[in-house]
């Protein structure tokens, strides 16, 4: 039943579950005073997740808004697709990176941004770029951008404490701490399965398939969406965007390799699965 809910509903359920857990834990540990403190903390957590999750995610990326000359006609395409989807014109920002990636964030339709890498706008053909922008517009319209930004903030918080604990423990024991090589991850290994379940709960493969279908319907060309998925997927294999695991769920194609501990965050369907589901065949 829960898996059939909208992504935003799942995030709200997750936020209220965290708040309820904090309140119960506070009451059990310190009675009435603990209950009051836990309630205050849960209110702070709620406000941080709802009002500042988008800002926190946006600050992670060093992006600049597209202003003045736009040789790729990105703003024109975005304005056209936003008008067609009956949503306000979102801000469009460029991330200086040769990798091919795109994502969108926003608290709601009125406060949303689309992020594109310079490698993406300079490499994709016009119809493929339009397909990617349509995908982001549909994500904003469905409020998936809000859900994934909030999920990224929750995952970042869940990873931060175990990461600092593992760092301190490795330092005290004289162990080399290299989490990117899966060395020194002790408490983090305990938290990773929880993060995997949360990611799968909020961002199901079915929801991404629906986004692909809606983007194809918006531009009236499923093949362009499939070509964009295929091209970005190929570039991701050889030139992945250096994204932190916590924000990997935001991207058009997950930039993480399906190996080592980061495979728990690589919950997107593969490009082949997405294309086969969209067109009914593969390769294209």
Describe this structure in words.
- It is a single chain.
- The protein is of the alpha+beta class.
- It folds into two domains: 2-51; 62-284, Metalloproteases ("zincins"), catalytic domain (Zincin-like, 2-Layer Sandwich), CATH 3.30.2010.
- Helices cover 61% and strands 7% of the residues.
- It contains ten helices and four strands, in the order ααβαβββααααααα.
- It has helices at residues 7-51, 53-60, 74-84, 118-123, 126-141, 144-173, 187-202, 205-219, 222-238, 271-279, and strands at residues 64-65, 91-95, 102-108, 111-117.
- The protein has a four-stranded mixed β-sheet, sandwiched between helices.
- The radius of gyration is 20 Å and the shape is globular.
What's the SSE pattern?
HHEHEEEHHHHHHH
Number of helices: 10
CATH superfamily of the largest domain: Metalloproteases ("zincins"), catalytic domain
The CATH architecture of the largest domain comes to 2-Layer Sandwich
Task: Give the C-alpha Rg.
Answer: 20 Å
Roughly what fraction of the amino acids lie in strands? 5-15%
The count of strands amounts to: 4
What is the end-to-end distance?
A: 35 Å
Uncertain runs are none
Characterize the biggest β-sheet.
4 strands, mixed
Summarize the structure.
With 284 residues, the chain is α+β, with helices and mostly antiparallel strands. It has helices at residues 7-51, 53-60, 74-84, 118-123, 126-141, 144-173, 187-202, 205-219, 222-238, 271-279; strands at residues 64-65, 91-95, 102-108, 111-117.
